[in-house]
Design brief:
Shape of chain A: elongated
Oligomer: homodimer
Number of helices of chain A: 5
Chain lengths: 144, 144
DNA sequence: GTTGAAACAATTACGCC
DNA sequence: GGCGTAATTGTTTCAAC
């Protein structure tokens, strides 16, 4: 992980489909040299995966909300995690320290859709005793 | 945006470098047909960009924290946004409704690094009157 | 949408330092 | 271990339909 690898990562972050020859022009390396560096970074787990950023607005998800969840007892964690993993509108779930136990990042099509997500999905999980929802009005920055 | 486009998006989400020929085998379409669909989704803005998911842990960022920020007056927003955009450890910034005005998703190398981020960067911005930090203990799900 | 030819990029094998 | 060159293989692009 040297200076050149960092440059390659920066380039790939901006365009995950950039060709090795194009990257090579930036870092002054041959095509096989660039390919090998990318492969090695994948092997080491530094590069987790190549992906696409999808515009959620254009997919109909107009609402971004953060839901903080209080879980009563640790015995309900497994059921909770299963629900989280299976729900496509729950993008992120972090175990956090503080008054609440989990912080969820969610997307919804409408306020009523968010209502369903909170009432029918999150609060339906055994052990969920309290939630607090933060609605995003706009997004200033989002490095996904 | 039909059934096939959805399938293509799902495949690209899992592997942004999947070839059109490979995608074609899944959706039973020829290579130019797949390429054209991907191009059209890029033109429409549905696909924002191709990217790469980098393992933050392996990059030395062991701490994930959410910082909620209260901004005194709207006249300080521009300066605040500039700081946000320029700081690489601030991954996300959402304008939110509620007691706090902004929710920041941040990464740090260590607790002292997070301390610097809060004290020397965020609180240094004019108009920032209050912050509240949620430390992530672990991440259950993160669709980036 | 498909097919096929041309252009392009990646992979492999090899030699080099 | 890391790099470059050149041949091979595979992929995309571009036409025509």
């Amino acid at each position: 992980m040297d200076r050149i690898d960092e440059q390659i990562l920066r380039l790939l972050k901006g365009n995950g489909r950039m060709t090795s020859s194009e990257i090579g022009k930036h870092v002054h390396l041959s095509i096989p040299a660039v390919s090998e560096r990318i492969c090695k970074m994948e092997e080491r787990g530094l590069i987790e995966q190549f992906s696409v950023k999808i515009n959620r607005e254009k997919m109909g998800f107009h609402l971004l909300a953060f839901i903080m969840v209080q879980l009563e007892k640790p015995e309900h964690i497994q059921a909770f995690r299963t629900v989280i993993q299976e729900h496509e509108q729950i993008l992120e779930c972090h175990h956090i320290a503080g008054e609440y136990d989990y912080l969820l990042k969610t997307v919804s099509r409408s306020p009523s859709d968010l209502e369903r997500l909170i009432s029918d999905t999150v609060k339906q999980v055994k052990g969920v005793v309290k939630t607090s929802t933060l609605i995003a009005l706009s997004t200033v920055k989002e490095e996904r």
